[in-house]
Amino acid sequence: MVYTCCPRTKIQRYVTDTARKRILLGVTGGVAAYKAAELVRRLSERGFDVHVVMTQAACGFITPVTLQALSGNPVYSDMWDSRIPDNMAHIELSRDKDLIVVAPATADFMAKLAVGAADDLLSTLCLARDCALAVAPAMNRQMWEHAATRRNVARLREDGVEVLGPASGGQACGEIGMGRMLEATEIADAVGALLAPKTLSGLHVLVTAGPTFEAVDAVRGLTNRSSGKMGYALARAAVDAGARVTLISGPTSLSAPAQAERVDVVSAEDMLNAVTARIVDADIFVSVAAVADYRPARASEQKIKKADAAMTLELVPTTDILAHVAALPKPPFCVGFAAESEKLAEYAEAKRKRKKLPLLAANLAQHAIGADDNQITLFDDDGAHPLERASKDVVARRLVAHIATLYSKFRSRS
After folding, report:
1. Confidence (pLDDT) at 370
2. Using CA atoms, how far apart are residues 359 and 404, in angstroms rounded to an integer?
3. Does residue 249 sit in the same domain as residue 378?
4. What DSSP letter does each residue of 212-229 carry, written as one string?
5. Is residue 17 part of a domain?
6. Domain containing residue 271: CATH number
7. Alpha helical stretches, state H, 93-228
8. Which of the following is catalytic: 59, 126, 131, 173?
9. How far apart are CA 340 and CA 413, in angstroms?
10. Which of 47, 261, 319, 411 is the most exposed place for a label (fewest CB within 10 A)?
């Protein structure tokens, strides 16, 4: 069966990295196959070029058309697909890939991998591959706990296969226990970590993210529209690059990378104290948080009742956390962020020089706050380096690559 390839998605068109990683996503016949659609989306957002191979059983749970529409690439399920010129799809489809990920990986499919059986396109691809292989198990809790499955998983690990999960939780059968496939975001994070160059290996990176909340009374406060998405993307990219990451976050509902230490704070003073307590062994400090510049001089412990008369709030400046860290006797490599509404280059470069920062990333706030993509310009001693608009995960990886290059020079001078 042939499926017509659709145009590349908007997210994919944004990605122009010359070393863009290519992933073959294998989908097998389990009810968790519905998560493959979300996984394709999440991998594409991170800048990966995703190609899908399905087993015949998987096609009974989710259609190839859905996964093709999301990936922008043809979907394959037939060993003898005529779209491959020499009819050797089991060889050709894996040759230019950086990683094969099977998600969901059923108990049956993992058993085949463990003994080297190859009776369909996906299992044959996994046997004839040149690249790394990862599987995300998904099955009933009793199937996961069965001695045969445990032996097969142990064999796969011995053979160098990465086993991602599973997790514990509610299952389609109504039971609760181990065997639930990891969520798409968790698998995408794991894939990013597997494929990213470890340019920050052995380094401690401290990242601040999100807004702060400055209390006016027991229920009201001053805050801003920062979503925290860019800071969390930077934390993920630093983890993927091999760093030990501490993420100090203002109020947000985002999920931090599992490998990062997350410290939740509320106010600018809370964030300052958290940074001060942890900066001593940090090699790199990335200040992405939108920290309040002012706070009320006095916060009421009780709710202030509404009155007809006007109310005046006295505001006092907060401590500039980035400037405070950059002014330490032996500061880490400091990276600042600037969100401007006009005169981006002029204001950003002035801020970088005023705070004596080796690197500052700047954008127009009206085009980035709350969005899933971003367009930033990097300012350093060599000038301005505009980056194309892309998803925040892709922008974060580009920024981490630039940080790694500058940090090596910074360390050689210090």
Report:
1. 66
2. 11
3. yes
4. --EESSSS-EE-----SH
5. yes
6. 3.40.50.10300
7. 107-115, 121-127, 141-145, 147-158, 184-195
8. 173
9. 31
10. 411
Q: Is residue 30, in this structure, part of any structural domain at all?
A: yes
Same domain (yes/no): 186, 277: no
- Residue ranges making up the domain that contains 116: 10-194
pLDDT surpassing 60 at residue 327:
yes
**Is there a single domain that holds both residue 318 and residue 393?**
yes
**The pairing of beta strand 132-137 with beta strand 49-54:** unpaired
Residues 166 and 205 in one domain: no
Dist CA 289 CA 250 (whole Å):
8
119-165 pLDDT, tens digit each: 999 999 999 998 999 999 999 888 999 999 999 999 999 999 999 98
Q: Is residue 4 part of a domain?
A: no
Q: Which two tokens stand for residue 31?
A: 């009810």
Are 183 and 318 members of one domain?
no
Query: What are the counts of helices (DSSP H) followed by strands (DSSP E) for the chain?
Result: 14, 22
pTM of the model: 0.74
Is 173 assigned a catalytic role? Answer: yes
315-317 vs 333-340, strand pairing mode: unpaired
Residue 26: beta bridge partners? 53, 102
